[in-house]
């Protein structure tokens, strides 16, 4: 039975799903060294933001097939290292959207009305109504940085409270911003005009310290900033300075440069700052959502099924995958076949998506073809996750073309590869019942299903050649399952494709090329 390590607190609903297919060990608070020691025996790992999954841990995970992040952010996982090792990384992109958005709104209101400090004061036995005179958000301007899932929900809620909305997000359209009632502006305008600023962007090299001393200096003295996205987007030292100097009115932070928050000048500040311990996703509803979402994906991957929210398999959205599923095996088989025909070291793979496959949605078929191409060299080490990285590292150039006009079949794939044994091409399609057909080899038309052991010859189309080859194979005790000849003109060049019941014995290829008329012969094992 597979083994899953759960290294952060997750809802029982997730554990129950995992337990259907695996032994589940919950070990919380592992040190990096304990992680490295524990991980080799596990097939899957389920985490939240409390575990930092480094390259060292990933490399020690010899059995690891999947890392599931019960939440959105995967910045605590070395995703490139996982990709390199063929480990799929999944998350729950929407399970905690509402929880995080509501936390941001709660922070904005709590900050405006000094609720945490007022509450603490009453609990201390005081009745101070002067210190906690707040500000209304009604008719104030909210600047939303990052108008994705959480930012959009915050914008909608803020609009309902009568706020004016600005948004900064270089990756969304003006129309989308307008739909949400936001005026899309450059970041400087947002910083200068907003009374409240809320951050809903990922932490990337571009967004690290986006809110630094310079940005804080552009903000209004009454401005308040909320970060429920990621620590490090705000420069905490600069923020503490700005608050101390009264350059801005307040800040509410749920996330920190280092978590848990250690010694920090932020702790010394008063009612102008609210700090919560990364609680954005901490609602019962969100925890059930993300635990189920990610546990189901781990279960599926352990059962050999695809994951619906893999962050390191490009283009594999569930609906696209569903549509392409029958063609993935075709692409993989053709990749494997053309790779063997072209020789061990392939420099160039050209993938042509034809007929109904000639759309951008078919990109995963290119990855599947690469997986097939690399499978001879890498065996089970290559998968949909690392095929592109492995190909790049091997210097394989990939050309992807599309031709919707080719309609011999509803959809077909044409692959050509240039390698140490020259350039070869293969075309394949699916029959109505989903069966794979090889329809062309080196531009010669044929029609044959792939089989485990195959023999391809390039020969002159002339009487007697098929008989001679049959007798030769017979003399080596090789049984022919089926045979096809493809030619363009009578008595011109031709290819012969044979499906064999048995693998070809060593040395027979040389004998085959000695048959008069046969110029070349290749064996393929699929
Ligand atoms: N505090 C919490 O517990 C908690 C919970 C959930 C999510 N989060 C964090 O909230 C953030 C947003 O999550 P989401 O689900 O809305 O993500 P999302 O991907 O739906 O939205 C992110 C938005 O940021 C925009 N963006 C990217 N780079 C940008 C840049 N340089 N400048 C401006 N905009 C940029 C993108 O275009 C996108 O629209 C993430 O960092 C996530 O990890 C935190
Ligand atoms: O990225 C996320 O989903 C949030 O930061 C929540 O993290 P958590 O699930 O570890 O609380």
UniProtKB/TrEMBL annotation:
GO terms, biological process: L-serine biosynthetic process
Enzyme Commission designation: 1.1.1.95
Keywords from the named record: Amino-acid biosynthesis, NAD, Oxidoreductase, Serine biosynthesis
Presence of keyword Ligase: no
PROSITE patterns: ACT (PS51671), D_2_HYDROXYACID_DH_1 (PS00065), D_2_HYDROXYACID_DH_3 (PS00671)
Pathway info: Amino-acid biosynthesis; L-serine biosynthesis; L-serine from 3-phospho-D-glycerate: step 1/3
SUPFAM superfamilies from the UniProt entry: ACT-like, Formate/glycerate dehydrogenase catalytic domain-like, NAD(P)-binding Rossmann-fold domains, Serine metabolism enzymes domain
Catalytic activity entry: (2R)-3-phosphoglycerate + NAD(+) = 3-phosphooxypyruvate + NADH + H(+); (R)-2-hydroxyglutarate + NAD(+) = 2-oxoglutarate + NADH + H(+)
Residue ranges of every copy of the ACT domain listed in the record: 454-526
Family: Belongs to the D-isomer specific 2-hydroxyacid dehydrogenase family.
Name of the molecule in the record: D-3-phosphoglycerate dehydrogenase
